[in-house]
Amino acid sequence: MPQKQPPRRQSISVGRGTRKRDEDSGTEVGEGTDEWAQSKATVRPPDQLELTDAELKEEFTRILTANNPHAPQNIVRYSFKEGTYKLIGVVNQLAVHFSQVGNLIPKDSDEGRRQHYRDELAASSQESTKVVISETEILEEEEELKEAEAETEAGSQTDMPVAEVAEKVTEEELMTPKQPKERKLTNKFNFSERASQTLNNPLRDRECQMEPPPRTNFSATANQSDDITKVTQAAKIVERMVNQNTYDDVAQDFKYYEDAADEYRDQEGTLLPLWKFQNDKAKRLAVTALCWNPKYNDLFAVGHGSYDFMKQSQGLLLLYSMKNPSFPEYIFSSESGIMCLDMHVDHPYLVVVGHYDGNVAIYNLKKPHSQPSFRSSAKSGKHSDPVWQVRWQKDDMDNNLNFFSVSSDGRIVSWTLLKSELVHTDVIKLKAEGSTMDGLDGLQLHTMGCGTAFDFHKEIDYMFLVGTEEGKIYKCSKSYSSKFLDTYDAHNMAVDAVSWSPYHTKVFMSCSSDWTVKIWDHTIKTPMFIYDLNSAVGDVAWAPYSSTVFAAVTTNGKTHVFDLSINKYEAICSQPVVTKKKNKITHVQFNPIHPIIIVGDDRGHVICLKLSPNLRKMPKDSAASRTDWTSSCGTCCTGTPHSPTTLTLASREPYPPKKQKAPAPDTSA
């Protein structure tokens, strides 16, 4: 141990000497600067650009703005003042990068002061409870001591009640905690004094009652020509607006509804009832004719009459619009029932009608009065029996309007409209075959045929078909009035309707009260298709959108829709459309544009029905839609084979009119 003491002292002295030396060297300036400079030397990357002094001295200014580059610049708002959409000039440039909902409250705020005051109250109440507990313990100990002293000292009994009362008072004071005074928070933002505040008078309601003005009843007679006609157009517009709101659900179904169940039906479709048109004046009249207006697709004409010859009354011509189902647009009344009608293609305001008494009349929709513009009479060659069908034809050589009519009296008459009268010309007189009788003096008597329906060819102007009550169909020509071009033994009862196909020049269709619908080729005397509908068929109609679709109505209240391209043997839709079993459907018509049909019954009602997608399939194209009828109808539905004939169905575009010469009549017919 003594040997190691001298080196320890030496080390201490050496340490003191070095510390002085460091302090002296620290005062020198510039010593160690080279080492510091070497440690701070810049390191240049190998790919740094080498710029000249001019490039280094060039300044690039960069302007920092507070605009948000992602803020939209094309926000528009609707201006109710100007009634247009206007571009907003001021765009919010604030961009929030981070936001967090917290619960921190500044100490200087009112809420912070309230919380601080509540914390102080809680702390003071806890301290007071602790003090009370400790004092109660001390008092209990003192009481025990006093009780012991009281037992020993008997003379102190007289002073006990006073001492006990004092002790109880002190105990109650100690047990009840002292609540600190509530400090009043001053409002820094309210510098108003009570002396400077003005008194606000309470609001009071003032009311006054006056004597009501005297009332008088005013009544006068308004003339239709003076007052009502001035508001007719406005009233019609308001009526349509009210009906549009009333039948809004029906209008939505007409425009947009499509039966989704058709996707799961292979070869079936449905009819959706839309509007029901009826009028009080036509309650006891049957619907005897239907016709769509060729110009306005929402307007159609309805003829009202009676098929019962024992219950004949007046007739009505009503024109309804789908825009106003509640009331007809035009009403024309007649003394005799209307049995048929037709609207002119070029002049859609002209309506020709045929009456039960054999007269024909023409109504002009531009003229407000209810009387017809032209009317036949006994002097001008009216029919002697009911007129069952009328058809407008092309103008004659002098550009005069003309139409044809057929009646039960066997006459087919051509009527020409002159300036003030109707001129008639008998085209042909129907004669029943095999009914020639020998009269007196060797005279031969011919029984007249009763025409019930006819239709003109769509291309060949002179050719037309006539159906009779005997069930026969005659192919006639305007050029020959004594002979028929051909005769078809079509039905066993009266022919109710005959219609040429709008797409094929050789095909026509007929229906009868013998429950059958037949499709013919006019070059063959046997039908290609025969359909038995188990009830009398009132009317048939070809569809305007497809060459294989047609509809038929029967007296049992059903509407049948056929599509030969889908099913050649039965209807793809057979649906009852009237409510009561006693109702009989009389007529049917397709709308030329919209996928709807209208049907009329013998109670004067007209029902509008929408075709489901399976009932209105359009042809794909002109090449794909062409069908060889020989392959589809080589054998009739009855199983009777006939000679093969190739009938090619045309596409949806109509054929251009062709002028052909009338062939010589077939004398064998």
UniProtKB/TrEMBL annotation:
Provenance organism: Vulpes vulpes (Red fox)
Location relative to the cell: Cytoplasm, Cytoskeleton, Cilium axoneme
InterPro entries: Dynein_IC, WD40/YVTN_repeat-like_dom_sf, WD40_repeat_dom_sf, WD40_rpt
One Pfam family of this chain: WD40
Gene encoding the protein: DNAI1
WD repeat segments: 488-521
Keyword entries, A-Z: Cell projection, Coiled coil, Cytoplasm, Cytoskeleton, Dynein, Microtubule, Motor protein, Repeat, WD repeat
Coiled coil stretches, renumbered: 131-158
Region Disordered: start-end pairs: 1-46, 642-669
Family matches, as SUPFAM superfamilies: WD40 repeat-like (SSF50978)
Family from the record: Belongs to the dynein intermediate chain family.
Keyword Lyase: no
Official protein name in the record: Dynein axonemal intermediate chain 1 isoform X5
SMART domains: WD40
